[in-house]
Amino acid sequence: MTLRGFSFSSVEAAIKKPGRKDLALIYSEVPATAAAVFTTSSVKAAPVLVSREHIVSGIAQALVVNSGNANACTGEPGMIVAQDTTRLVALALGVETSAVQVCSTGVIGIQMPMERIQSAIPHLVEGLSTGTLADVADAIMTTDTFSKMETCSGQAGGVGYTVSGIAKGAGMIMPNMATMLSFIITDAAIEQNFLQQTFRQAVDASFNAITVDGDTSTNDTCLIMANGMAGNPTIVEGSSEGNAFAAILNTVLLSLAKQIVKDGEGATKFVEIRVTGAQNYSDAKLAALAIANSSLVKTAFFGQDANWGRIFAAVGYSGAEVDQTRLSLCFDDVCMARNGIFAGDDAEARGTAVLKQKEFTVSVDLGIGIGAATVYTSDLTHEYININADYRS
Questions:
Q1: How many angstroms separate the CA atoms of 136 and 145, rounded?
Q2: Distance between CA 88 and CA 298 in Å, rounded?
């Protein structure tokens, strides 16, 4: 699958410390139709503020991103760094400053070493002829243990196109749009409003449906660029090609989101939480997130303890409409409780066996409506504490 019209680069700028590539660039040969979703936190990093302003045009041609420093809570100096970074990259590439997106990930509250970034930008641009998307995926990692990538292909008007995506994130994950960044690029031609609408829906069903620790970052950013260089007829809403593109986009984003959960800091379990029978979707999502974020539930997952009562407790305080006499719960296909009552010792033994697996599903039926939602989470381990107790060192 060839992705046309994009080039990539990564270099070592020693933003936090030397020894790894930590500054990366994605460049489209032509201005691309673009859309983005940013953190809903009231505390937003400088690059989020700058990129949010630039994306209003619906056009992007380059993305520059660093790891090792979030450039968040850095005041006016941080804003100047983010603005100057986009300006210098634009100048080096010969594009409009407003067409450059900027992202950062890393430690909050530390001033960005702009002189190192400025020195690295010429090398970054020079490296575009030899870099790969995998290089960018590697450069944006922080506590990640592996890089996250996904690629799918499709056709529109008989012309093939590719959708590729990368992401980073392992902790501080409940995007709500962890530290989470994701960049999606495609050579398909897509109408702007349809791209924005479809992208937001795909984000809601993927990155907004995962949680590792319930924390929303100052830097969460998810960006898509569609440069049209595949040469397909423009994909629009309501067409069969539009439906196919939406399905491909959902596949790419959900794959990346699941990879983030599986790489959750210290995680040993990947858990799918399915809530059905809720009064509506909002209630189902509330209940699912309450289960997925409960420290007691997550530690039970780690300890392989089939403690279904903790899950019912989380549902009860979630804010969803609940009738405890109608609640049912299963671990995979093992029914642990029905109509609010424990299913017995045999269920306990079989449910414990399910929790010994690395991946399993928790299904909760509220029994009062047709609302349904799915959330993906991990367990909470000793290693999570170890990682985050000395993250800044």
A1: 15
A2: 45
Is 216 in the active site? no
Q: Which of 184, 143, 272 is nearest to 6 (CA)?
A: 184
Is residue 148 within 8 A of residue 252, CB to CB? The reply is: no
- C-alpha torsion sign, points 263, 264, 265, 268: negative
Whether the CB-CB separation of 6 and 28 falls below 8 Å is answered with: yes
List the structure tokens of 175. 């995007």
Has residue 176 got a pLDDT over 60? no
Instruction: Write down how long the chain is.
Output: 393
Q: CA separation (Å) from 389 to 113, 116, 383, 385, 392?
A: 25, 28, 10, 6, 9
In the chain, the domains with their CATH numbers are 6-262 (3.60.70.12), 270-389 (3.10.20.340)
pTM comes to 0.88
Calpha distance 139→242 (Å, rounded): 33
- Which one from 85, 142, 162, 179 is the annotated catalytic residue? 179
Q: What is the pLDDT of residues 106-162, one digit of tens each?
A: 889 999 999 999 999 999 999 999 999 999 999 999 878 889 999 999 999 999 999
CA distances from 75 to 70, 105, 106, 113, 116 (A): 12, 16, 16, 14, 19
Nearest to 362 by CA among 261, 268, 223, 269: 269
Instruction: Tell me how crowded residue 245 is: count the other CB atoms within 10 A of its CB.
Output: 26
Q: For residues 393 and 389, give the distance between their C-alpha atoms in angstroms, rounded to a whole number.
A: 9
152-170 exposure pattern, b = at least 16 Cβ within 10 A, e = fewer: bbbebeeebbbbbbbbbbb
The DSSP-derived string for 204-244 is HTTGGGEESSSPPPSS-EEEEEE--TT-PPPB-TTSHHHHH
Distances (CA, A) of 165 to 5, 240, 271, 353, 373: 15, 23, 23, 35, 24
Contact predicate 188/230, CB 8 Å: yes
